[in-house]
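User: Could you check the structure of this?
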Amino acid sequence: MKRPSFQFYPSDWLRDTALRTCSVAARGLWIDMICYMHEGSPYGYLKVNNKVILPQNLARMVGLTLDEVQGYLHELNDAGVYEIDSGGSIYSKRMIRDEVLRNKRAEGGKLGGNPNLKVKHKVNLEVKQIITPSSSSSSSSSNIKPMPIGFDLFWDAYDKKVGKPNSLKAWSKIAFKDDLLQKIVEKASLDKKAKPDNKFRKDPERWLKGQHWLDEVVIEQAPEEKMLPLGTDAQIEAAYRIECGGDPTRARFNSYQEMRKFVQEFRDRKGK
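Assistant: Sure, the predicted structure tokens are below.
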């Protein structure tokens, strides 16, 4: 018999890093999809009577345009919120795992509650449950302290993996408002591009405490290469040797003018 409800844990939903990167509209579509997958057959799949719910069907079901639904689906897919099977059906790995766990527990309850149903061998009820960001419809472990919202995004964007405990403390003291999380992550990514060698970037704890997401990004430009003069024969030979990597004594040019032309063409190709 199909259950009329499923477990939902707000803390899981609010701390789901993948979902936090999606827009409010995309998250709204996802919770509707979770409800449809709860009703789906098989359980956890976006199907009705084993028929795939296509984007155009989903658009009619939720009251959105096809373009809107496709955009939100791309957003959720890019964040890794759901999976797609070989038949093109969207499904939630976590909902499927949770269903397996519930069925195992139900079987265990039956065997334990009725002595006539007990068997001589031990029933292994241990099911390894892997927490994934695909859905927030199962219980969270009280023994695992959840990661602060958005910290993983910053940690990966800044990409200087030192002093994580202190960085977490600094992160927890930030008063997030509006789009501050997005600004911090974008600025951390820009700082990484500006200084690819992380030894020249501040430690993440100092970066957060100093509110360096407010700083201007200064990208160091490599000095432009100065072109050697091509006035005299000696200068042409020097340019050919240094810029083109050739040996003037072995070159098969008929004149210095041909060598000069070759150097100029080499510079044009390099500049493109």
